[in-house]
Design brief:
Strand order of the largest sheet: 1-2-3-4-5-6-8-7
Order of helices and strands: EEHHHEEEHEHEHE
Strand content: 25-35%
Distance between the termini: 38 Å
Number of helices: 6
Largest sheet: 8 strands, mixed
Shape: globular
CATH architecture of one domain: 3-Layer(aba) Sandwich
CATH class of one domain: Alpha Beta
Helix content: 25-40%
CATH topology of one domain: Aminopeptidase
Length: about 180
Amino acid sequence: MNEPEPQTVAIQSPRLRVESLRPGDEARLQAVFAAAPDWFLATGRPADPNAAALEIAGSATDPGRAIAVVSLAETGEDVGAIGWWLHRPEAGMALLGTLVITRAHREQGLAREALDALEAWLGEMGVTELRTAFPRRILPLHPLVKALGFTEMSIAEHQKLGLQGAGTSLWQKRLEG
């Protein structure tokens, strides 16, 4: 039986293009990861030379999961990546898994613009809430996700999801319809 083709997503914003990646695009994504080596440290994971291949393979086989490259609309230069799961953990929600901008392009509002563009697209897909999660011990991420409009969820909410709370920092953001 053939697996269904992953959905191709192309989202445009004033300065950016967000384009989902497919098998064969690993070099583009790995170049973004290489240009943002501190991203792995910020997420508590060691740098992985196979990270792009794993992300793209996971997206190709998991319905609703996507990893996209963020490119400058004017030049086509890849400046970041964003990944999500549509309708996770349930219908009407999405989970943000990756948001990274290369070092050379930070502090220009590109992460916020890419996230805003994704949120608008998710809204069109019927999503009303975006969530993200990461190990609680990674304190430098807390102010960043707050600045992007997320609020931390309570330990009780973690337990409802089967997460025993203490080690995971779970965040949510309501999307405007």
